[in-house]
Structure formats: structure tokens, C-alpha cells
């Protein structure tokens, strides 16, 4: 278990992102139960996922074991469930109201970790922070943070708030956080929740098919051909670890990263991800080799 920032929250090295569990309650409950029974104690959801339905499903699945589970949810998208539309709203009023609605859907009286679900440098950041601080003082949330890949926004929150975590995209195919943000957060004792560690399923044993499906137009700084070439190089060094294990181990290697967040729409996908090797530290030699094989991309916007 890893500490989340300076908070009293400890989370497993893998987090189940619940967005993909679907809307069939029993099926979703089986997926969540399997994850919790196999060492994962941290579930990630958001009010916008399925316009509130995802929170309801998570709440139903964990209501008998609430004290054993760390729940993360997110706020900031003002949505209309009937019209299935939404707009960005980081106002204090919306955050306070959003929390109340999320608590109701999750059938709980507190959320462990509450995040702003995005954000821009034009937002009323001081007002947003005030809302989260108020919720924390009232005991309705234990800690808060932001889900963002925008360096300029993250830096503002580091400077002005007491966030304990930042969720950001980070994988072997998206090494942009390594440029400066990971070290900045580490220096400030703020944890990273690395989402997308398997790069849309490309960094799995089914990667070739996923490249043809989800990487046909390339991915970030990689063309489809480069994805194939890099995938082949990665699979050539992965004995005895599987490529998905390497992918998890790589993002967890940086001391700022507390947990790798992966989605699953079936128990089989969790079985593929939850293996004893994930918590083994990646040998330095292989870590450096992975850095040579992949590209050290940098953020080009929101600097």
C-alpha cells in the first residue's frame, strides 16, 4: 500500500477505474468484488460516468464493505442526465452541490479522495480550492486533488492548494509527465495516480490487435508503424514478465506514482492485470532499456 500525498489514505499499487464496468449491476458488482478480493482497495469513478449511473453501481457494489474500500470520485462537469449533455463548471456552488449528489448515489457519507475532473488556467482556481477545503474541513472528503494533464494548471494547484494527488495519463507510450511534473509533485509530497498505463490496451498481450484497432492513426508522437516496431522491441525484452507487467512496473517505478489506474470490463481483464510480479520493482537495467526503446515525449500545450 502507498500513502496518498500527506493524507492518512493508503491505496493499492493498482486502482480499478470503474468507468468500463458497464451498467449491468450484477456484472459490474462481480468485477468490483473480484478486484477487491485480489488486493485492490481503491476504486475510481466520477459523477459524469454514465451520467451518475457509474457512481450508483459502485455504491451498490461496496455498501456492505465501505470501510474496506477507498473511493475516488470527480466533479466539475455540470450534466443533464435526461438530455445527456454537460458543460464545464468549476464553481464553488457546483462543487458543493456535486458532492452532495455523489454521496447520495454512492450511498456513503464521505468520499475518500475527491478530484476536480479537468480544469483550465482561466478557471476561478481560488474559488475551486476554497470549495474543496471546505468539504475537507466538514469531513465530507478526506483529501482532494485534480485530474489533469495540463502542466500550467497542475502548477497552480501545487502553488495554491493542499492537494494530495494528481491523476494524469502516464505510460511507456506517454512519458510526458517525466519532463518535469513527476519530480515537481514528488518534491511537494503530492502523489500521482497514473491513468492509461496500458495505453488503450496496446501494452498488453493483445497489443498487436489493439494497434490495428485503436492505433491505426497513430498515438501521440508514434505512427502506426512506430507503434508496431516499438511493441516488438518491448516484447523482445519481457521475459519472464509479460508486457502488461512491464507497463505497470514502469509507471510505478517513479516514486511520485502511488497507483496505476486501469479499466476493466470483465473479470478476465482484471486477472490479466493482477499478478504477483506487478509489485516487484523493475530492475534498473530494464528500466533504462525501456527508456531507450520508447520516446521521451514532452507537453507541447498548456505550459
Automatic annotation (TrEMBL):
Gene3D superfamilies: NADP-dependent oxidoreductase domain (3.20.20.100)
Residue intervals of the NADP-dependent oxidoreductase domain: 14-290
InterPro entries reported in the protein's UniProt record: AKR (IPR020471), AKR2_Oxidoreductase (IPR053135), NAD(P)_OxRdtase_dom_sf (IPR036812), NADP_OxRdtase_dom (IPR023210)
Pfam families listed in its UniProt record: Aldo_ket_red
SUPFAM superfamilies assigned: NAD(P)-linked oxidoreductase
GO molecular function, one term: oxidoreductase activity
Protein name per UniProt: Predicted oxidoreductase
Species per Swiss-Prot/TrEMBL record: Virgibacillus chiguensis
